[in-house]
Each structure stands twice: as C-alpha cells, then as structure tokens.
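User: Here's a structure from my thesis project, written as structure tokens. My advisor, Dr. K., wants to see whether a designed sequence matches the one we expressed. Can you design one independently, without my sequence as a hint?
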C-alpha cells in the first residue's frame, strides 16, 4: 500500500481565481484520486491553506481520506500538487487552469 497525497487548491479544485464564479471541482484529478483509493492505497488530502480547508473540500467533493495532515508534514510515496514541490518520493505536477493569474494574491485574500 502506498501513501498518496493530493493538494486541494489547483489540484482537487479549480479556484475561482481561475476565472470561475466560484471554486469548482477538478473532475480529472478527482477521478485519479478515486482510482488510487479503489486500489486500496492510503489516501491523504492536504492543503497549504490548512487542515480545516482540506477537510471542508474533502466533504464537499465526497472524498474520503485516511488522513488530513499539515501539508508536507509526513512522508508520502506520491504527491499531486500544482506547484513544483518535493513532498513525496514521486511528485506529480497537476496542470493549473489559467495559470497566468497570481495565486499568491488570491491566497492572501481568500476566505
């Protein structure tokens, strides 16, 4: 069994900053999450925005996770994120939608 971690913003969801009226699910990434889960792997959802943000989105998306740690706080085998990160033994960069928009500015002001 592998430990598989998925980030929330720009990975499991497409945030409103990408040009939508509200945050929307990233269905392609969610399908991948569900595939790994169906294979029996240990599933982790985390976010740089915090544990509560990760739990809130997991519930909204109907995703069950085995753990909601602080992002990067535990070793994982595979990490899915929208940034160039080294959080897992293998790191997969998820394509951002409208990646020319500043996520840093958005993160400062999101609620």
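Assistant: Designed independently from the structure alone:
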């Amino acid at each position: 069994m592998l430990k598989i971690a998925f980030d929330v913003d720009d990975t499991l969801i497409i945030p409103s900053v990408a040009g939508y009226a509200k945050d929307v699910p990233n269905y392609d990434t969610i399908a991948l999450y569900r595939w790994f889960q169906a294979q029996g792997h240990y599933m982790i959802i985390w976010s740089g925005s915090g544990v509560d943000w990760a739990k809130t989105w997991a519930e909204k998306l109907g995703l069950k996770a085995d753990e909601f740690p602080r992002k990067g706080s535990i070793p994982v085998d595979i990490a899915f994120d929208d940034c160039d990160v080294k959080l897992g033994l293998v790191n997969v960069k998820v394509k951002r939608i409208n990646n020319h928009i500043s996520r840093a500015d958005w993160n400062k002001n999101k609620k």
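When you compare it with your expressed construct, this may help: The mean pLDDT is 87.
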